[in-house]
Each structure stands twice: as C-alpha cells, then as structure tokens.
Design a protein that fits this description.
Layout (H helix, E strand, L loop, with lengths): L1 H19 L7 H9 L20 E4 L2 E3 L2 H10 L7 E5 L5 H7 L4 E6 L2 H13 L5 E5 L12 E6 L8 H5 L1 E12 L4 E8 L5 E9 L13
Parallel strand pairs: 3-4, 3-6, 4-5, 6-7
Antiparallel strand pairs: 1-2, 7-8, 8-9
Helix pairs in contact: 1-2, 1-3
Length: about 220
C-alpha cells in the first residue's frame, strides 16, 4: 500500500513537471493543487496505472476525465482567488472540482448523470472536500439560486456560449467554455467587466464530450 502511494506520488510530481509546467502553466496555486490531488482515485482501479498519463481516460457513461494539461490550462485561465465562489458544469469524475476546491473558497458543481453524481459525491466526502457543493441537475442551466459566481468552468463542449451561464457570472467574473461542434471545439474565455460588458478570448482548440441539456445539445 505504501509502495503504491509512493509510486503515485512520484507519477504526480512528474506529471506536473513534464506535462504542465513545461507547457507554460505557471500559476503556483494551480501547480500546487495538481501536485496534491490524487488523480488516480478518480478513475477505475483498472486504469489507475494510466491516471497520470498525458491523455483523457474513460470514467463510464460515455464520459471522460480530461487530460491533465487541459485541466491545468482551464483552471489557470479562471484566475481563481482564495475567496472566490466557482461553478463547475459537469462534475464527471470529480477531479476538476477537487483541483478547484484546493484554490477557491467554495465550489458548486452540477452533474446530470446520476451514477457519476453519486460516485463523485462519495469521493469528495472521503477526501474531506467539504467546500464542494454538489447538485444533480441539467448543468447547462447553471445554478441560479447560488449566483452570481466569480468564475464558471464548463467541462463539456457547447454549440454556443450558454446565455444562462453568462447571466450567472458576476461582475469581474471569468468563464471558460469549449464551444464548437460535437467533435471539436475552441476553448473560449469570457470576462465580464465591472460595467457588465462581456469580452471573449479564444484559447485554442480542444475536444470534449458534448454538453447535453437545455442550453446545450439534445440527448
């Protein structure tokens, strides 16, 4: 057990050094979170030896845990501060929410697939992430009763930027969302300034499973 723990610790440090820092991710808060969160517990036992590889992995229900680099890139783009309240659309394995929870004051995460929702909630409790609040619902509609949020991250590809989520973003807030077709997207960063004006920046190509819901793709 100790040998496994040391092995995964070594793989985690190597992941950050070779896959993350070497590609320009430099936010010390993001790097610290990636070094700390045990990514291998968010995948099935059969895939644990691949958990720190430079690729996404299946987590069941035709969903994936994102490539470590894309998790780091999206988290850095959010520019999260310690007092921020962050909304995540698409809990999935729970790994991205755990990374966010290491940095932000509170993380609200929404998942539409029941089995993934319960599995992630159990993991959060086991890992003592008491600042992660979960909801089983259509994530494309956000979480209006808890808005506005300082940052919003969408971990599935949308056909367009969901208006509902833009509305739930607070003044000075940041959002990252993959936008495109069902097979490839561009990662779009949105900034809402203090006057409520929205600016957009294209961070480059990416590929996510599709965002299913009222503000996304149909089933």
């Amino acid at each position: 057990m100790l040998a496994d723990s040391l092995k995964f610790e070594r793989q985690r440090q190597e992941m950050v050094l070779k896959q993350i820092e070497s590609r320009g991710v430099s936010d010390p808060k993001v790097l610290s979170a990636l070094r700390k969160v045990p990514r291998h517990v968010f995948v099935s036992e059969a895939l644990r030896d691949q958990a720190y590889g430079d690729f996404p992995l299946p987590i069941g229900e035709q969903q994936t845990i994102s490539q470590p680099y894309i998790v780091a890139e999206m988290t850095q783009a959010l520019e999260i501060k310690a007092e921020d309240r962050v909304l995540e659309i698409g809990t999935g394995s729970g790994y991205q929410a755990a990374i966010l929870a290491e940095i932000a004051y509170r993380v609200y995460t929404v998942e539409r697939i029941r089995t993934l929702y319960f599995k992630a909630r159990k993991l959060f409790d086991q890992l003592h992430y008491h600042n992660i609040i979960t909801k089983y619902s259509d994530g494309s509609m956000g979480w209006s009763s808890e808005s506005p949020f300082d940052a919003i991250i969408v971990t599935a590809g949308a056909p367009d930027i969901p208006d509902t989520l833009v509305q739930q973003l607070g003044l000075g807030g940041r959002m990252v969302v993959p936008v495109g077709n069902q097979y490839s997207q561009d990662l779009i960063k949105i900034f809402k300034d203090e006057s409520g004006r929205v600016r957009k920046m294209n961070l480059g190509g990416c590929r996510f499973v599709k965002l299913v819901g009222e503000q996304g793709w149909g089933e």
